[in-house]
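REVIEWER CHECKLIST
Item 1: Sequence provided? yes
Item 2: Single chain? yes
Item 3: Sequence as submitted:
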Amino acid sequence: MQSTTSSFTMRALLVTGFLSITIASPFSVAKDTNTESETCSYNEVEMLKLSPREFDQNLEKGWREVAKAEACREAAADLIHTYYTKNEISKGAMRTFVWHEGQLRAEVGQYQRAISLMKQARKSPEKDMSGWNYYVDATIAFLQSDREKLKNQREKLAAVPKPEGFNPTDADGNPIEIQWPPNLNIVDKFIRCFDQAYSEVYTECTAEK
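Item 4: Structure as written out by the authors:
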């Protein structure tokens, strides 16, 4: 199975607040030791010291390092939960973290918990210029096996107009190509692979439209 880390990275770059755009965790250990769960290990103290951007975006640190192993996706979700409950973070960062925790919960089949988290990731309508909420609701519809709602959210997302002057660049100021609207290709995969598990959609979805 292809690593999920890369797909999460791309999704984060496109739709989270890190671009210039609670339930107690069952996974807990002593603060001064490494956390270990079968093949999963990390130092919780060091993880909690990371900045929100580093914890979420650095492939060699934070939850992504833990999630590289498929067997550790739930441990990574628990780590995200621990991070945002023990650190003071911005509202935008919180939306990012509950979304990524929700994605990981869905990856391991915890659909109801994932849905609850994803609902918390919605933006205020007046601040949603990219159709993010339609993508959130389409994802939830997929997890609820609601094909009609999924297709409805897809049409709403597809109709979101590109903002005037939308010319994204990388950190060096070089133009980069980003699909508009963001995440429409993912929603289309939800529709094509409606009967597959969420964990298969990003990596093993081969059904024809």
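Item 5: Key structural point noted by reviewer: The radius of gyration is 17 Å.
Item 6: Recommendation: ____
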